[in-house]
Amino acid sequence: KKSAPNPLSVYDDYSFSGQPPTPFILLARRILTVTANSASCERLFSTFRSTLTKLRNRLGTGTLQALAELKMHIRDQQIQKGTKEHLK
User: Fold this and answer.
1) Statement: residue 87 has pLDDT above 60
2) Which of 69, 71, 77, 82 is the most buried (most CB within 10 A)?
3) Alpha helix ranges (H) inside 14-38
């Protein structure tokens, strides 16, 4: 069975046994453990698109941000409760 190599193991080879990892190794571990995906950004743009319509084109950035945060918070609560109602 093929498995993907672990990039963090490369940095383990550069550390000395019995010594704490160097700042470079700690930084590399932090960077390599971040999952790269754009789902949350796409979800946020979708929320902005549904909020900022032709009829609401004069909303200020603060109001738009507050509405988007409220909508996302309500969506998260609905997911936790298991309801399937959608805000449109």
Assistant:
1) no
2) 71
3) 23-32
